[in-house]
Amino acid sequence: MPDRPTNPHDAYFRHVLSRPADAASELRAVLPEGVAARVDWGALVLQPGSFVSEELRSRYSDILFRTRLDGHDAYVFLLIEHQSRSDRFMAFRMLDYLVAIWNQHLREYPDARTLPAVVPVVVHSNHTGRAWSAATELSELIDLDPATRAVLGPFQPSFRFLLDDVAALDLPALKARDLTPAARVMLMLHKIAPGNHQLGVDLLPLADDLRAILDGPGGMRELRCLVTYILIVGDTTETDFEPLMDRLGPQVKEAIMTTAERLRAEGEAKGRAKGRAEGWAEGEAVGEARGRAATLVLLLTEKFGSVPAAVAESVSAADPATVQIWTRRVLTADSLDDIFR
Questions:
Q1: Residues of the domain holding 326
Q2: Is the same domain home to 263 and 299?
């Protein structure tokens, strides 16, 4: 997970669910039993890259796994929507992603004679609790009256994605899911962390999961990752986590305090860098404006002889747009009055 991601939701989601074991726990909770029983969970292999464009990363994150489905090559495409308002064209968007996955597969295996199955899953997660309200089937988006749909239906694309509407689940239901601790904490934090003023208290029911994360492989790194997320998206300061630190001990306190200090230092450094950049930009703009004014005075001198001091001062004090207008008039003006009229 980047130290200071552009989109912390995307970074935290990908950090956790890019691990096959954590992803498998979430997918088993979503897929129909008949499908889940056919997936070779031990063969999940994360595929590189993303199919979501940069401009949509604030709303969506995606992960692609390759696996086997009843002995056949297959993919599982997992996309999470962070926004509170459902994307009405998600079914169309998912079809576009599936076509991109097949195209990528064919580029990798140009001699393939069939296409692998792709299992599409959308996780809808936000802190507002607003349930999913958009279509999950592409045919619902095609504008046809019922009679025409009955006749034309076989010739229209039929596609549906699996929806895990985490936003609509209450916290006890989500906590009761058979998930890995990291996956459960990540999904619950997506619901409760943004803008939260009392995360120190609200995280207490997750103390056992946090302890399991801390005691697992790379425990301190994983803890710092989730602390980074909650300090970025929440409104809780590190001192408000005292109940949690008292419950879980000095390691958690160290992770929270050092992460908060690092984020503050990074924020201050970026603020200073931004100030310097703005100062340089302002200096460049001032320099450019002065250069244009000097050029105009030089042109006036070449055309009309000496330029009165009052005119030179007016040129220096004028805004860049006005200087540009005056400069264009030099070509056709017969006198200074023609330029400054």
A1: 288-340
A2: no
